[in-house]
Amino acid sequence: MSESKSHIDIGVDTYQDELDLRVKHLEVELNKNIGRYWWKSYINTAFWNNISTPISLIITIITALTTAQTATNNLLSDAVMKDISLAALLISTLNTFFRPSTQLARSMENMNNWRALGSEFEKIYINTTITTEQGLSEREAKFKELMERVLEMKRSQDTNFITDLIHLASKALCIKDKESWKPDI
Length: 185
Description:
By secondary structure, the protein is mainly alpha-helical. The chain has one domain (23-175). It has helices spanning 7-10, 12-72, 78-98, 100-127, 133-155, 161-175. The longest helix has 61 residues, at 12-72.
C-alpha cells in the first residue's frame, strides 16, 4: 500500500477540505502581507511628505531672502545674513543627503503598487467561486500567482530604519491588529 494519498484514495470531501485549507492559508497570508506592506508604504509616504514639503519651503524662503539682500544690500544685517547662509548650508546638505522628495516619490510608487496588488486580491476573492473543487483549484492557482508577485515586491522593498521605526510605533499605538488588507478575513 502506498504512503502517498491522492484525492481518489482519501475521498473527495477530504481532498476538498485539504484544498479549502490551503486556499484559506494563502488567503490569510496574502491579506496579511499586502496589508502590512501597504500600511508601511503609507506611513513612509506620510513621513517623507511631511519632511519634504517644509524643507522645500524653507529653502525657497531662504533663497528669496538672500536674493532680496543681494538686491537691496541693506535688508538684513551681516550677522543675520551669516546665520541665514549657515542655515541654508545645513538644510541644503540635509536635503541633498536624505533626498526627501526622491524618498516621497519612491514611497508613493510602492504604496500604489501594493494598492494594485490589494485590488487584484479582492478581485480574485470576489470573482472566483469556491463552492466546487474546480473553483477552489482556480482560486488557489490565482492566489499562488499573486503570492509570487507579493514575494517579489517584498524582496524589492528598501529598508529605512527611521521609517521602519515610525511604522512599528504606529502599528503598536494606532493600527494594532488592523493591518490586514481586508479586515473581515
